[in-house]
Design a protein that fits this description.
Layout (H helix, E strand, L loop, with lengths): L3 H4 L5 H8 L6 E6 L8 H14 L3 E6 L5 H6 L9 E5 L3 H4 L2
Parallel strand pairs: 1-2, 2-3
């Protein structure tokens, strides 16, 4: 695995925030994983309600694809839909742009 992009992540921070439409004051909680029932995504979605109450400037970014992709995006609890962004599978070519 090429770890170099992760070591220099701050260099692309502004560009990625702009592309994903995240203002500078938003805290981004990211999860990169296959969207599969054994990965515990339901715990993140459940905990998000508590996090949002304490930190309304938070957004949850889920990167990945799998058998629960449609199910996960539809399970965002009522009132939290605007706090979640599901990117789907991001290939190498797309992630390096």
């Amino acid at each position: 695995m090429d770890v170099e992009p992760f070591l220099r992540a701050d260099e692309r921070r502004c560009e990625m925030r702009r592309r994903l439409r995240y203002p500078d004051d938003v805290v981004v909680v990211g999860k990169i994983a296959r969207l599969f029932h054994l990965k515990g995504h339901e715990y993140l979605i459940t905990a998000a309600a508590q996090v949002v109450r304490r930190c309304p400037f938070v957004r949850f970014l889920l990167v990945g694809d799998g058998s629960c992709a449609g199910h996960s995006s539809s399970r965002s609890p009522g009132g939290l839909t605007g706090y979640f962004q599901f990117l789907g599978l991001v290939g190498r070519r797309r992630s390096r742009r």
